[in-house]
Amino acid sequence: MEIIVGGIIEKDNKILMVKEAKKKCYGKWNVPAGHLEDGETIFEGAIREIFEETGCKVRLKNVLPIINKELENVKFLLITFTTELLEENISFNKEEILDVKWILKEELKNMTSENLRDEKLIKSTLKMLEENKLYPLDVIEVL
Questions:
Q1: Rounded to the nearest 5°, which phi and psi values hold at 80?
Q2: How much is the pLDDT for 71?
Q3: How many other CB atoms sit within 10 Å of the CB of residue 141?
Q4: What is the predicted pLDDT for the residue at 5?
Q5: What is the 3-state secondary structure (H, E, C) of the chain?
Q6: What average pLDDT does this structure show over 95-119?
Q7: How many CA atoms lie within 13 A of 35 on its CB side?
Q8: Residue 105: band (very low, low, confident or very high) from pLDDT cuts 50, 70, 90
């Protein structure tokens, strides 16, 4: 099972999204996220992934419901946090990310799998945000 961590950065009814450069999802928008590395907590991993993909420094605020998904016979746990933007300094590795852009929530809702890396997942995440399905960070215990 693979663990994916990332975060939602909101400002002015927009969400900061990344345009993927990976071959399997080239040119599609996604929430900044990636694989948890050995030796790091999910909190550290989310902050690192957000910074690596956007150049932004954030503080984690809440966690959305954890998503268990299977894709191409690989099981994933996706842990997405809401964040507070501490420092906006858009920069990214052009070999991994093509662009970073603030996109209106309404615009994201109207995008399809043609534009989104995982339409169902991203729209589910937006719905959880709208429904205020946010949980305090202390529901996750790090031992």
A1: -115, 135
A2: 78
A3: 5
A4: 98
A5: CEEEEEEECEECCEEEEEEECCHHHCCCEECCEEECCCCCCHHHHHHHHHHHHHCCEEEEEEECCCEEEEECCEEEEEEEEEEEEEECCCCCCCCCEEEEEEEEHHHHHHCCCCCECCHHHHHHHHHHHHCCCCEEHHHCCCC
A6: 97
A7: 6
A8: very high
Q: Is the pTM of this model over 0.90?
A: yes
Tokens of 38: 């050995």
Inter-residue contact 35 to 52 (CB < 8 Å): no
Q: Output the six-digit token pair for 95.
A: 């070999």
65 - beta bridge partners? Answer: none
CB atoms under 10 Å from CB of 68, counted, come to: 10
| Dist CA 82 CA 85 (whole Å) | 10
User: What is the pLDDT averaged over residues 25-43?
Assistant: 97
Assigned token pair, 79: 């842990």
Q: What is the mean pLDDT of residues 33-49?
A: 97
Res 124: pLDDT: 96
